[in-house]
Each structure stands twice: as C-alpha cells, then as structure tokens.
Amino acid sequence: MAGRVPLGADRAAVAGEMETTFIENLRYAADLLAQEDMIGLVEPINSRITDPRYFLNTPHQAAAILEKVGRPNLKLQLDIFHCQIMDGNLSRNLETYFPLIGHIQIAQVPGRHEPDSPGELNFPYIFELLESLGYTGYVGCEYAPKGDTLEGLGWLRSYWESRGLQHGGTSKAAQ
Fold first, then answer.
1. Segments in 98-170 forming alpha helices (H)
2. 36 noted as active-site residue
3. Backbone dihedral region of 170: left (phi > 0), alpha (psi from -120 to 50 degrees) or beta?
C-alpha cells in the first residue's frame, strides 16, 4: 500500500516525504520480487470517494513514481473505477499508460457494480480498446455484485455472445 496521509496533515505539506518513503519501499520490494522473478503492482485509489487520505490516487502520479523507482518488474495496476473517478478520459489514459500496465481491474461507476449495470462507462468499448492496444492480461472484477457470484458474472456471458464467442471466450468457429 502507498500509505495514507496522516490525520490532520496537509497533503501538500507531507507529499514529498511520503513519496520518498514510498519510492524507497517500492525499490526494496521490487528487488525482493526480482529475486523470485515476480512482478509487483501499484494501484492508485481514488481520494474522492473510496479513501480521501490514500496517498497514491492517479495514474499520472503512479507513472511518475514508477519512473523514479526505475525497476522493470514494477507495473501499474489500473483500476478503471478509480481512474474514471479521479480523471475520466479513460481512452487517453489507457493509451498513455498502456506500456506501464501490468493488470486491469473493472467496476461500473458510480455504483461499483457489474460492467452491465447502469453507470458512466461503456465497457464493450473499453474491452475493444484494450484488445486493440494488445492487452493480453487478465481483467480483474473488483465490484460488489448485485446477486451471487454466478449472477454477478452474467454480463460476461452476454459480452462473449455479442462477440460471437462461447463460454470461456473461445470462437464458435473454432469449435
């Protein structure tokens, strides 16, 4: 975790010290992870709704810190929910930060529910953009499902079917 701004402290007044400590800790962690051939992730979390005191809150800030850390095995975990709340402009942010992205997480804004629930985001467009950028990693579903797990993943079946795919994302033509 990036840490939280201390209660009662002015964010701007402690930002330099917090960033220095965070960078030192990330270098240490990345070096340990490298010994095991592992990748570490940093995730900006919005400070408008989820945690007003969380230190790392935008992809821009995370990218600047990753550059200062300078470890190739440290990547950006881009949570679409947090990114939309803090900055919007998802298409441009995905394109800009794509080389740094190690993992994507999704949830609809503002309710933090399934991608097909009412909200601000057009997930079929976002998924197509990720494909066009060459993203081949997993997409984590970090949302509060409105029902049980199976109901909460119903959107995925519908999405696959709309793309001519079957369960598991395989092409019907390949069957």
1. 123-133, 149-152, 154-162
2. no
3. beta
pLDDT surpasses 80 at 168: no
43 in active site:
yes
- Which candidate in 43, 120, 128, 131 is catalytic? 43
What's the pTM value of the predicted model, to 2 decimals? 0.90
Question: pLDDT tens for residues 25-54?
Answer: 999 999 999 999 999 999 999 999 999 999
> Of the residues 114, 120, 142, 161, which is catalytic?
142
Q: Look up residue 89 and give its amino acid.
A: N
Please provide residue 124's backbone torsions phi and psi, each rounded to the nearest 5 degrees: -55, -40
CA torsion 40-103-88-159 (nearest 10°) is: -170
